[in-house]
Amino acid sequence: MASRIDRxxxxxxxxxxxxxxxxxxxxxxxxxxxxxxxxxxxxxREGxxxxxxVVERNVLEWRCDPTSEARLPxxxxxxxxWVVLCSEGYTSSLAAAxxxxxxxxxxxxVIGGYHALKAEGVLV
Length: 124
Description:
The protein has about 120 residues and is an alpha/beta fold. The chain has helices spanning about 5-15, 25-30, 40-45, 60-65, 90-100, 115-120; strands at about 35, 55, 80-85, 110. It has a single domain, classed as Rhodanese-like domain (Oxidized Rhodanese, domain 1, 3-Layer(aba) Sandwich). It is globular, with a radius of gyration of 14 Å. InterPro entries: Rhodanese-like_dom, Rhodanese-like_dom_sf.
């Protein structure tokens, strides 16, 4: 029997059009925003992604919500394509689903996270 968090993760992923790592450069070229939600210690240990906006997980919703006073300048509306990145693609699925809950209908995450970007050689 699956754990509760496994069921929550599956439900989150069922709502997303998850992005393979190899597709990230094309997404960025069309204007998507890659958001690295890994904590600073993890980014220091694993490596940075130069093209990514760094928004740690605990403030993601406030920074991406175009109606929030704490929003990023890039959070200009519900049509922004947010591509969330974590280390392995678990936390990012939950985070992207949370952005969907805010009405950010183009939010998704990277399958396999940072590790998949690195393995594909697409650390943009």
